[in-house]
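Hi P.,

Sorry for the delay on this. The queue was packed all week, but I finally got your sequence through. Input first:
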Amino acid sequence: MACWTYLSFVSSIITYIEVGLHTTTDFELKKGFQDGHNLATSHTKELSEFMTQEGVALPQTPQTKPKSNPEDIPLGAKLTDSNLLTQ
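Then the structure:
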Protein backbone atom coordinates (compact mmCIF):
# COMPACT_ATOMS: atom_id res chain seq x y z
CA MET A 1 0.00 0.00 0.00
CA ALA A 2 2.82 2.41 0.83
CA CYS A 3 4.47 1.84 -2.58
CA TRP A 4 1.20 2.59 -4.38
CA THR A 5 0.65 5.76 -2.34
CA TYR A 6 4.24 6.91 -2.86
CA LEU A 7 4.02 6.32 -6.62
CA SER A 8 0.78 8.28 -6.81
CA PHE A 9 2.29 11.15 -4.79
CA VAL A 10 5.54 11.35 -6.76
CA SER A 11 3.67 11.22 -10.07
CA SER A 12 1.59 14.21 -8.97
CA ILE A 13 4.68 16.09 -7.81
CA ILE A 14 6.23 15.70 -11.27
CA THR A 15 3.36 17.79 -12.67
CA TYR A 16 4.16 20.66 -10.30
CA ILE A 17 7.86 20.40 -11.04
CA GLU A 18 7.10 20.65 -14.77
CA VAL A 19 5.07 23.80 -14.17
CA GLY A 20 8.09 25.29 -12.40
CA LEU A 21 10.47 24.20 -15.15
CA HIS A 22 8.32 25.83 -17.82
CA THR A 23 7.59 28.99 -15.84
CA THR A 24 10.84 30.19 -14.28
CA THR A 25 13.66 32.01 -16.02
CA ASP A 26 15.98 31.82 -12.99
CA PHE A 27 18.90 29.50 -13.83
CA GLU A 28 19.46 28.20 -10.28
CA LEU A 29 15.78 27.58 -9.68
CA LYS A 30 15.47 25.84 -13.04
CA LYS A 31 18.47 23.63 -12.12
CA GLY A 32 16.80 22.67 -8.84
CA PHE A 33 13.56 21.82 -10.63
CA GLN A 34 15.49 19.77 -13.20
CA ASP A 35 17.29 17.82 -10.47
CA GLY A 36 13.98 17.17 -8.72
CA HIS A 37 12.36 16.13 -11.99
CA ASN A 38 15.18 13.69 -12.75
CA LEU A 39 14.96 12.14 -9.27
CA ALA A 40 11.15 11.90 -9.25
CA THR A 41 11.08 10.45 -12.77
CA SER A 42 13.70 7.87 -11.79
CA HIS A 43 11.71 6.84 -8.69
CA THR A 44 8.51 6.63 -10.72
CA LYS A 45 10.10 4.48 -13.41
CA GLU A 46 11.76 2.06 -10.97
CA LEU A 47 8.70 1.71 -8.75
CA SER A 48 6.33 1.30 -11.72
CA GLU A 49 8.50 -1.49 -13.13
CA PHE A 50 8.66 -3.23 -9.74
CA MET A 51 4.93 -2.97 -9.11
CA THR A 52 4.08 -4.17 -12.62
CA GLN A 53 6.42 -7.14 -12.18
CA GLU A 54 4.67 -7.97 -8.89
CA GLY A 55 1.22 -7.71 -10.48
CA VAL A 56 0.15 -4.57 -8.60
CA ALA A 57 -2.16 -2.22 -10.50
CA LEU A 58 -0.60 1.21 -10.98
CA PRO A 59 -2.39 4.37 -9.86
CA GLN A 60 -3.68 6.83 -12.41
CA THR A 61 -1.13 9.56 -12.99
CA PRO A 62 -1.46 13.07 -14.41
CA GLN A 63 -0.35 13.75 -17.96
CA THR A 64 2.97 15.49 -18.44
CA LYS A 65 2.82 19.22 -19.04
CA PRO A 66 3.80 20.50 -22.48
CA LYS A 67 6.99 22.53 -22.72
CA SER A 68 6.46 26.25 -22.99
CA ASN A 69 8.46 29.44 -23.17
CA PRO A 70 8.29 31.34 -19.85
CA GLU A 71 8.30 34.63 -21.76
CA ASP A 72 5.06 33.66 -23.56
CA ILE A 73 3.06 33.32 -20.33
CA PRO A 74 1.14 36.52 -19.46
CA LEU A 75 2.29 38.06 -16.17
CA GLY A 76 -1.17 37.77 -14.61
CA ALA A 77 -1.27 34.03 -15.27
CA LYS A 78 2.38 33.25 -14.56
CA LEU A 79 3.62 32.06 -11.19
CA THR A 80 6.51 34.15 -9.94
CA ASP A 81 9.72 32.52 -8.75
CA SER A 82 8.75 33.26 -5.12
CA ASN A 83 5.35 31.58 -5.75
CA LEU A 84 7.14 28.55 -7.13
CA LEU A 85 9.43 28.33 -4.10
CA THR A 86 6.55 28.35 -1.61
CA GLN A 87 4.29 25.83 -3.36
